[in-house]
Amino acid sequence: MEENGGRQRPTIVLDASVITKLFIEEDYTDIAEKIVEKYIAGEVDLFTTQVSKYEVFNSIKYSEKFNVGMLPRIFSIFDSLDFLVSEEDPWMAPMSLMFAMQYGLTVYDASYVALAHVQKATLYTADNEIVRNVGQPFVKHIREFA
Fold first, then answer.
1. N or C: which end of the chain has fewer CB within 10 A?
2. DSSP state for residue 90 in the 8-state scheme
3. What is the domain range of residue 133?
4. The domain spanning residue 117 has which CATH number?
């Protein structure tokens, strides 16, 4: 958390399931956009993992709403979101594997949990399995964002 006018700014980690909503209109797209607006306004700090770009592109590719004509807009938006990508901490990979084993997640999903843990942040996801399996107060479904 960083200082913001004498108060602490909340730190948020977004996973690929939330970031995808910025490109493809889905349930909770409005909330994903609200989170980014709060970042732009300096009200929150945002992070995601380095692998999220590939996960998002994969989700977009398989979306029924995707068409090739959307690519320029998708690349443009993603380039403007560069501020979200966290530098790789040397402990992230082993911690991600540990959380994957502990919570029954993929290593990719566990990497968001590890990043939130390291950043002392709240992880917002649209993946009910992550919320259910982790069962920790710092992992929340995007619908819980206020």
1. C
2. T
3. 3-144
4. 3.40.50.1010
Residues present in the chain in total:
146
User: Does residue 100 contact residue 110 with C-beta atoms inside 8 Å?
Assistant: yes
Pick from 20, 43, 15, 23: which is nearest to 112 by CA? 15
**53-112 pLDDT, tens per residue?**
899 989 999 988 888 888 888 888 777 776 667 767 788 899 999 999 999 999 999 999
**Helix 71-80 vs helix 52-62: angle between axes, to the nearest 10 degrees?**
160
| Gap between the terminal Cα atoms of the chain | 18
* Six token digits for residue 107: 């290593």
97 Cβ neighbours under 8 A, 6+ residues apart: 107, 110
